[in-house]
TrEMBL record:
Gene Ontology cellular-component annotations: extracellular region
Cleaved signal peptide residues: 1-17
Sorted UniProt keywords: Hydrolase, Lignin degradation, Secreted, Serine esterase, Signal
Name of this chain's protein: (4-O-methyl)-D-glucuronate--lignin esterase
Main location: secreted
Length: 477
């Protein structure tokens, strides 16, 4: 009897262990047969059709997408004439009006299965100088908005802010509007270090949905509820959220550009609020997974971001569309462009026209990341999840790296890719590399930031630079 009871108890314990996934553990996704429940205080949230994860807090999970949307069968013709998108009010590094000549926002008849050359303008001219890069960056901004991200509106006429603080928690109440009678309000919270701020104020990291990197001492953190700005529950979320209450539900901005717009308004608000004691010259941005895609967009488009830190952003982030498709075609079940436009509203409806014919896209995400240059960025990736398309991230960032190399500042662009940890759980082995970038670029300390590493765990594919990178890196003068 004793023995039988023991076995029964052991079986019950075993079943319980099997039915509850651990903290940060996988709890669902295509092909998943393991536990689907999460520990108390943790909720199973779908990150994409391949992966649901136990995350802290009881936020309701988005409606489960049980099937991957089929590829669109009819592809609309490419837009041929589109007014050049207006970008956010530039600061530092943007070309003076007229300094660049006409900026192309379309490249008719573009056809290139390899990665587009960062050092050749749409009109065929070569990028030779650092000033040329400023103009090429403006061109890339227009191309990315037009082809995949939607329009990023400039600073609206009304932006006001007030600040309150209790203990080490501050609240920045922001009003933004097209007129005083047509406004939206949002109030991100800031967690401050204790003690007195440096003379120029605290450095700050804007963390999409709170982020998942360890914030070092001496740096404040702002929690940005980007999903309130533009919802990202599913492919049915388009046009929902604060941004669209202001600009209208049919505005062409995708969730990505709507989120960037919100980051820019946060920085506007901090600039006009000295009481917050934030050093607006030392603002970083981070986010993980879908919010890592968003953090990269913010760093690319908002030049007041001093350090960009996307974490496990994968396809739609620091991976390239073309490389992710190559991974998919060769047996890695990755999240590619076709899947992404069916899954959520991160990119514009116009991008649907290109996901089936990526060679016609005159940009890719090595160019999105290169828009951060000459400012610094480091991205982190996780090879334990093939849907993050690990070869694509490494190859894409290797291609982007040539821009920082051409500018003579290769140590301002970092990349680190390891496995052995759950998606968005921070691997402590990478803390020194993260802190090196934060110390140097937000805390004004000296640090060595030459970080470019991978474990080469790319599933069924390998990275072959010569198959994708057709340019030689110039020395920009
Ligand atoms: C090509 O476009 C760039 C960016 O607008 C411009 O600076 C350059 O002068 C153009 N080159 C020619 C030959 O038109």
């Amino acid at each position: 009897m004793f023995k039988t009871s023991f076995v029964t108890l052991a079986l019950v314990a075993y079943a319980a262990a099997q039915s509850t996934a651990p903290q940060w553990g996988q709890c669902g996704g295509i092909g998943w047969t393991g536990a689907t429940a999460c520990p108390s205080g943790w909720a199973c949230q779908q990150l994409n059709p391949y992966y649901s994860q136990c995350l802290q807090g009881a936020a309701p999970p988005p409606p489960p997408a049980t099937t991957v949307a089929p590829p669109a069968t009819t592809v609309a013709p490419p837009a041929t004439t589109v007014a050049p998108p207006t970008t956010s009010a530039p600061s530092g590094g943007s070309p003076a009006a007229g300094a660049c000549g006409a900026i192309a926002s379309t490249v008719p008849n573009y056809n290139n299965a390899k990665l587009p050359d960062p050092f050749t303008f749409a009109n065929g001219s070569t990028v030779k100088t650092k000033n040329d890069w400023t103009c090429r960056r403006a061109e890339i901004s227009a191309l990315i908005q037009n082809y995949e991200a939607g329009t990023l509106p400039p600073k609206p006429p009304v932006v006001t802010a007030s600040f309150s603080k209790s203990g080490t928690t501050g609240t920045l109440a922001i009003t933004a509007g097209l007129s005083t009678s047509q406004t939206i309000k949002f109030s991100p919270t800031i967690t401050f270090p204790s003690g007195n701020p440096p003379a120029n104020g605290w450095p700050l990291i804007i963390a999409y949905e709170g982020g998942s990197i360890p914030i070092p001492a001496g740096v404040a953190k702002l929690t940005y509820s980007n999903s309130d700005m533009a919802q990202q529950n599913s492919a049915s979320s388009r046009g929902q959220g604060l941004f669209y209450q202001l600009y209208g539900s049919t505005h062409s901005a995708s969730a990505m550009t709507a989120w960037v717009w919100g980051v820019s308004r946060i920085i506007d608000a901090l600039e006009m609020t000295p009481a917050a004691q934030i050093n607006t010259q030392r603002i970083g941005v981070t986010g993980c997974s879908r919010d890592g895609k968003g953090a990269l967009m913010a760093g690319a488009f908002e030049e007041r971001i001093a350090l960009t830190i996307p974490q496990e952003s994968g396809s739609g982030g620091d991976a390239c569309w073309r490389l992710s498709k190559y991974e998919l075609d060769n047996g890695n079940q990755v999240q590619d462009a076709v899947e992404i436009v069916g899954e959520n509203v991160w990119f514009s409806t116009n991008f649907n026209n290109y996901v089936q014919k990526l060679p016609t896209l005159p940009e890719d995400h090595h160019l999105l990341a290169a828009m951060v240059a000459p400012r610094p960025m480091i991205s982190f990736e996780n090879t334990d999840y093939l849907w993050l398309s690990p070869m694509s991230s490494f190859g894409c960032m290797s291609a982007a790296h040539t821009v920082w190399e051409g500018l003579g500042i290769s140590d301002l662009h970092g990349f680190a890719q390891v496995g052995g940890h759950a998606h968005c759980a921070w691997p402590s082995s990478l803390t020194p590399q993260l802190n090196a970038f934060i110390n140097r670029f937000l805390l004004d300390q000296s640090a060595t930031t030459s970080v470019f590493t991978t474990n080469n765990q790319f599933g069924k594919v390998q990275w072959q630079a010569s198959n994708w990178i057709t340019w030689t890196t110039p020395t920009l003068t």
